[in-house]
Amino acid sequence: MTTTPRISVITACYNSASTLRTMLDSIRLQAIEGTFSKEFIECIIIDGGSTDETLDILREYDDVITFWSSEKDKGIADAFSKGVAHARGEWIAILGADDAYLPNAFATILAGAEQYPMADILYGEALLEQEGNTTIVQRALPFSELNLYHSFVCHQAVFARKKVFDTIGGFREQLRYAMDYDWLLRAWKQNFVFQPLPHAQLVRYSLAGASGKHRVKALREMRDIAISVGLNREECYRQFRLSVIKSTIESLMQTMGLQPMIHLYRTRIKKRYAVLQD
Predict the structure, then answer these.
(1) Which residues of 228-247 are buried (b: 16+ CB within 10 A; e: fewer)?
(2) Most buried among 91, 168, 176, 272, by the most CB within 10 A?
(3) Nearest 5°: CA angle at 78, between 172 and 247?
């Protein structure tokens, strides 16, 4: 009799040899019932036809990876959806090839599932970056309609029940930057229950992804998505303008090397972040 995995992790990658081992090691370190086991943790890798050492690394981690494929795809959303089609776990998560789970992340999620049995989507905190003794943390904000106008959760720190994907489907291929935000809003429209896990740090993620490199384009796509699901059009445009201004200010500070000011700006102005001192 085949055991249903507790958690399925899906990663889309392309020429990711420089970061892939760190990501896979972070999954190998996760323990359910005291140890890592492919019986409980399902790792699915969808590669877009890499030409570097990525495929050699995938073969190297046969003890961690449950399924992988390598072929050209239609983009990140298509790759994620292919991974979802293979997932069998009770809970499904999406992780970037340049991201990594923190220790005990999966145990924290399963404890949260027991604590909040009605929850369909659990989400925690994410470590954005670390410089010296300072770590920027993206908070797990309380779920509210007001927060829907923003990227209110780091999608790498989201774990959703498989039934959510079975109901609303995967990720829309026509989107380039905010397919995760679109998926979360579609889940909200279907009345699935979101539950934050405050102070539960689950993942360290990179800002080098497509949405980080093309911030204004990503914000514009998010605005259009929010309007499409029925959020107030005027408020969507207002939040878009504010987000562009904030993003521009942050970029200028980064260019000028004003890191302490960036930390202050993120925590006092954006309020979705916190600064931890080790």
Answers:
(1) eeebeeeebeebbeebeebe
(2) 91
(3) 60
> Do 100 and 204 meet the contact criterion of CB atoms below 8 Å apart?
yes
Residue matched to tokens 């923003």: 150
How is residue 274 written in tokens?
A: 């916190």
Tokens of 113: 């599932």
pLDDT in tens, 60-115: 999 999 999 999 988 889 999 999 999 999 999 999 999 999 999 999 999 999 99
In the numeric block, the tokens 């507790």 are attached to 6
Residues comprising the chain, all counted: 278
Q: Which two tokens stand for residue 248?
A: 């521009």
